[in-house]
Specification:
The protein has about 325 residues and is an all-alpha fold. It has one domain. The chain is built from 14 helices and no strands. Helix 5 packs antiparallel against helix 9. The chain is globular.
Amino acid sequence: MKATPEGQTAADETARSALPWFAADQAWRKGLALGGLGVLAFSGTLPATRLAAPVFGATMLTCSRIEIAALLGLFSLCVFHRWIWPQKRQLLGILWTGLGLAVGYPFFIALALEQVPSSHAAVVVGLAPAATAVIAVLRAGERPAPRFWIGCIVGAAAVALFAVHEGGGTIAPADGWLLAAMASVGFAYVEGGRVSRELGAAVTLCWAMLLIAPFAAAPLLIESLSLTWRAIPWQAWASFWYAGVVSMFLGSIAWYAGLAAGGIARIGQLNLATPLLALLWSAILLDEKVTWPFVAAAAVVIAAMAVCLSSRTA
């Protein structure tokens, strides 16, 4: 007797569940690869912001990232995607993606990096996966396994302890800006991942930038009039373009494609690797010292990430 579609689906699911976690799902492997590329691109954001923010200012750097990504998005929609238009029900999610990713996150990060080194901010950024996981449960209906939450809590606790240690037993004011940045980016990841499942990662990001670009134009123009352009060093220019092209546009496309393919909560835990990668960039580019509390915290969050990635999500 020929199997029904329902019976076939159940049999397929049973067969997949018997496979090792790393081989059970081709979509998960695709999500892991694309998400890894996104994290690699994001890892240079903090050192780049540390170099560019004191020169350009938090407002101009934030607005310029939006306009650069919007221009690239406009070109991409015209050349590669033949003007795929979002549906009305997708517009709110796209708008929240742009506000969280391109406004809240870079602006709060730039404010924090005026007070603390990028290595400190890099570890606090490790709270982003926890924020993403919680919001994914509330908004995207994902249900991670219990060991996922264990790894998530352990990683978040290591980050919190490091922040308190670096602040001399207290939470520094800059940590408040960093926590606000984590909430913004967590919401943007979830909303962008949800829409990307239907619209595609590249199209979602392009429209997110285009929707908010008109509001960033006026502040960018005002800030640019008061800037002494000839005094800007090449390091600040390089960081400026990295933040707009690589981090804001290319990295975000890869990241949202990974979230859509492999699951928002689980692939989102790849961000736990950001502290270690950002530390390497900070040591190489900014000559910041590597302390043993950072190494210990980074080791814990990497172990926590491995636990989270190996768990299943319903």
